[in-house]
Design goal:
- There is one protein chain.
- By secondary structure, this protein is α/β, with parallel strands linked by helices.
- It folds into 2 domains: 130 residues, 3-Layer(aba) Sandwich (Rossmann fold), CATH 3.40.50; 70 residues, Winged helix-like DNA-binding domain superfamily/Winged helix DNA-binding domain (Arc Repressor Mutant, subunit A), CATH 1.10.10.10.
- It has 10 helices and 6 strands, in the order βαβαβαβαβαβααααα.
- The protein has a 6-stranded parallel beta sheet with strand order 2-1-3-4-5-6, with helices on both faces.
- Helix 2 packs parallel to helix 3, helix 7 packs across helix 9 and helix 8 packs across helix 9.
- It is globular, with a radius of gyration of 17 Å.
- InterPro entries: CheY-like_superfamily, NreC/VraR/RcsB-like_REC, Sig_transdc_resp-reg_C-effctor, Sig_transdc_resp-reg_receiver, Tscrpt_reg_LuxR_C, WalR-like.
- One of its GO terms (biological process) is regulation of DNA-templated transcription.
- Pfam families: GerE, Response_reg.
Length: 216
């Protein structure tokens, strides 16, 4: 697994220290671990990490300090990868984070999911490599609150698109659905066609498809 330089922001001391120990156990370095948004901004400016991991709600107001800090940093460093952690599914925050990405790897994960350590570490590396990872529970709850506008998408294509939203590769989707990679590629081609996403040099069509899926 690739080793990353990670700046961490989490106001709960025990969780913060536990995450630092976990990250270091997997070979990553954590040059700074802080407890509020301004400290995150300062630390990321100083250390220029591969990835920042931040809680959404931090002092002083416990609203969206972590999210605003991430957005500020990505405005300065457009390719800075970021994973935002949340205690609950917060629809507005998830949409704001995903829609504001500018080619940078982005993740939105629930804290309860960190219990699957290897999956969490894999998600961090995928985000650092430029991918987008959305917690499956976030996807489910976002979709439950929306009307389904993707009328032309088949049930199987919805399954494929949902797994794409979790950041899964074609091979991983094939394993999850017990189909061939060729079948997955065919489904993805159909999804992109139905969402009117032709090839374009400046667009990542998988990301655009996932955003369309989440926005509904």
């Amino acid at each position: 697994m690739r080793q990353l330089r990670i700046v961490l922001a989490e106001d709960a001391v025990l969780l913060r220290e536990g995450l630092v120990s976990l990250l270091e156990r997997f070979g990553h370095s954590v040059p700074a671990a802080v407890g509020d948004g301004p400290s995150l901004v300062a630390a990321a400016r100083e250390h220029r990490p591969d990835l920042v991991v931040a809680d959404v709600r931090m002092p002083p107001a416990f609203r969206d300090e972590g999210l605003r800090a991430v957005r500020e940093l990505q405005g300065e460093q457009p390719h800075l990868a970021a994973v935002v952690l949340s205690q609950y599914v917060e629809q507005t925050f998830a949409e704001e984070l995903l829609e504001s990405r500018h080619g940078a790897g982005t993740g939105y994960l629930l804290k309860d999911r960190v219990g699957d350590v290897e999956e969490f570490m894999d998600a961090l590396v995928r985000v650092a490599d430029g991918g987008m990872v959305v917690d499956p529970e976030v996807v489910r709850q976002l979709l439950a609150r929306r009307r389904d506008p993707l009328g032309r998408i088949t049930p199987r294509e919805r399954e494929v698109l949902g797994l794409m939203a979790e950041g899964r590769s074609n091979a991983a989707i094939a394993r999850a659905l017990v189909v061939t990679e060729a079948a997955v590629a065919k489904h993805i081609a159909g999804i992109l066609q139905k969402l009117d996403l032709p090839p374009a040099p400046d667009d990542h069509r998988r990301v655009l498809a996932v955003l369309a899926y989440l926005r509904g």
